[in-house]
Amino acid sequence: MSSGVAVDLENITIRFGDFTAVKDANVNINGGDFFSFLGPSGCGKTTILRAVSGFLEPSEGRVLIGGNDMAGIGPNKRPTALIFQNLALFPLMKVWENISFSMEVAGASAAERRKRADELLDMIALGGQGDKLPSELSGGQKQRVAIARALCANPDVLLLDEPLSALDLKLRQHMRTELREIQQRVGITFIYITHDQGEALTMSDNVAVMKAGVIDQIDTGHNIYDDPATPFVASFVGENNVFRGKVKSISGNEAVITTNRSGDLLSRITPAQVGKLAVGDDAMMFIRPEALELAPRDADSKTTISANVINEEFEGNSFSVFLQGDGGKQIKMSVPNLGQDRISVRGENLSLRYDASNAVTMPAGELASE
Amino acid sequence: MSSANLIRVALGAYLLIFFSYLLGPLVVMSLTAFNSSSFPTVSPWACFSFEWFDVLFNDKHIRDGIYYSIVIGIGTVILSVSMGLAASIVLTQVWPKLRSTYYTMIIAPILIPGVVLGISTLVFWDRAGALLGATDGSFLHGLFHNGIFLTILGQSSFIASYAMLVFVARLQRFDTGLTEAALDLGATHTQAFRKILLPFMRPAIASASVLAFLASFENYNTTTFTIIDYKTLTTVLAQKVRLGINPSISSLAFIIIVLTIFAALAFEAANRNKERKLAVQQGKVSANKSGVLPGFMTGNPAAILLVLLAFVVIVLVGTAQKYSPEACKVQVREAKQIEIQQRIKELREARRIKDEARAAEEAEQPAQAPANAPQNSGAFGNVFAPGNLSEEEAPKPDPAPSSGTGAFGNVFDPNNLNSE
Ligand SMILES: Nc1ncnc2c1ncn2[C@@H]1O[C@H](COP(=O)(O)OP(=O)(O)O)[C@@H](O)[C@H]1O
Ligand SMILES: [Mg+2]
């Protein structure tokens, strides 16, 4: 596997008139990495990708590809290939002509182009379909043609803008593994954009989580899930229960917060925020639904929550129990299905406990809107 | 009768009137092309004849006019399609706030009367030549006062706007992402234009070209000023109308109508063919379709009608080689002569009776005789009026009735009536 080419964004700010679409982004992407930008729609992901591929120049900051400053270098001169959100296959060209377009503009002969296109078609399991028009392919096939077309240009960096968003769920899951396999085979740097956290977590070496033009956290998928840096990341990635309160005491990397409803609660301070929290601050504590369990009688009150059951749902592999939480928010508990008939009855008051190491506290901030 | 029936009948009547209004003049005009009568008319019908086609093809003015119309048409297509394409692309690139202003400016020539465009083209290039120091006899001076050059420019100034409208409509459906994709894959801007945008615009370029050619071909208002010493079909026809027309113009109209029908048929057939191919490709329709009618005609009565019409035309053209109207014309001429001679006989008879009556009167009142003489010629003039008309209708003034004319020669003298 080749080592691939690194991409660095240095203090990138991108403005459209008065509107700042991306604010002071600093990202170092290692060569050969599968790197994802994750964020809700409209947060500036595409804008960053367009800055990398050269369709727009950042208002401030630099884009470095393989250590070279890309300022003033057009998209057709950069070693990147972009897979567009809508794929942008050329509708009037046959599939093989689409795939080998980069060779055509470079002046390769038709025979050469056909040969390479057929190789790539075999690779994407579409052998023998080269003479079709894109309109005659299914969604997943188009998707793969777009990937082959980009790979045919032999880019150092492949940029993918929500390439799976148009596919149905099954196909999407299949294409995830396929994309990851392709990336490992060709060994080039992939920069992947998505608003689907599942995609980001399963495929990526590293993920940058974005909110309204600002990158909140860059880390591995695992770390982002376990140690979210901000309330936004905590609530956007995966499901999370939020408890608001004031910091009562801090010892090392643990803190106790006082909540209105559940009293004092103990938890870890999320690594990114250690040292940034002081007694008396507004804080938010997050506990994943699967980290909650029914409490035994003698449980420590600092890690128990008591609440009334609103509703219970059976999900196959688990039960979801919804309980009355703070400020109108529901608390969700997820209990694995081990053959129980049910977990609770409606209206019942339950005591739930958690492990302090599974709960994270951080300064209060904006949550992701559902 | 129920009201539903009434509505149906009313609708039928309306359609009938509507289509006769649309197509009636064309049909009548086409028929006049085949009547040997020297004035475009259907009734009275003289002889079925192709002579007006001969007259048309032997008319140097019309031939020249068609030739220059085509030359100018081609020039206008090239110039206005490229200008329109460029203008429409600029429209998509220009700063959004400027867009409506730009659009108005580009579209303005359509609203300006063609006469104004013609005159201003003439004046502008004359001035431009003067500014560039083009002296009489120099190449530039010649060019700026060349009817073909000026007409192409003058017509293109507004036809380009039409072309642009066609292109804008198509461009609105263009995904600029495709151009970006091409650039991203290493294409230069020129390559992206040539390989992506141009193929996408091809259907619009084809329709804009047809539109531009037709608009140029039928243009008169602008052309009449800019054409100077050349002539196009429209200016020739306008001149002919002023000097009096003959059915050769009908035959030209007939040819144009037929060409249009054939073009429409070919276009329709090609379209249906393409659609069917696509459907077959997608496996929606089996490739070997049963049935006698070609695909494009099924369920399209208009197409069937057009095919019948085309068939009639082919038959006509076929018979044109063999059929000679001479026999018929001789017949008509003879019939006319007989009619005229009959008239003359009747007139002679009338005169004889009058003469006798006068002789009898003179015998009674000889003093009145001199006063009666002019009255007689006046009477002849009136009686002969219908014969006068029928003579005009004859294809060629025939010398045959001259024996009669000699006798009544003075009758045709316009002063004859005045003298009364
Ligand atoms: N060319 C542009 N002009 C003005 N605003 C833009 C432009 N492109 C994007 N934006 C704005 O920037 C923000 C981020 O857009 P984008 O990067 O496309 O979001 P996403 O994360 O969904 O890909 C959006 O609010 C969008 O309206
Ligand atoms: Mg986007």
Automatic annotation (TrEMBL), chain A:
GO cellular component, one term: ATP-binding cassette (ABC) transporter complex
GO molecular function, one term: ATP binding
The UniProt record lists the keyword Iron-sulfur: no
Membrane-spanning intervals of the chain: none
Domain ABC transporter: 7-237
One GO-annotated biological process of the protein: quaternary ammonium group transport
Keyword vocabulary terms for this entry: ATP-binding, Nucleotide-binding, Transport
Stored PANTHER family: SPERMIDINE/PUTRESCINE IMPORT ATP-BINDING PROTEIN POTA, SPERMIDINE_PUTRESCINE IMPORT ATP-BINDING PROTEIN POTA
Protein name: Spermidine/putrescine transport system ATP-binding protein
TrEMBL record, chain B:
Keywords assigned: Cell membrane, Membrane, Transmembrane, Transmembrane helix, Transport
Subcellular location: Cell membrane
PROSITE patterns cross-referenced by the UniProt entry: ABC_TM1
Family: Belongs to the binding-protein-dependent transport system permease family. CysTW subfamily.
Membrane topology classification: Multi-pass membrane protein
Listed transmembrane segments: 12-34, 66-91, 103-125, 145-168, 249-270, 291-318
Domain ABC transmembrane type-1, residue spans: 66-267
Domain of life: Bacteria
UniProt entry tagged with the keyword Transferase: no
Designated name of the protein: Spermidine/putrescine transport system permease protein
Region (Disordered): 355-420
Composition bias type Low complexity, residue spans: 365-376
Single GO cellular component term: plasma membrane
Entry-linked SUPFAM superfamilies: MetI-like (SSF161098)
The keyword Membrane is assigned to this record: yes
Gene Ontology biological process terms from the UniProt entry: transmembrane transport
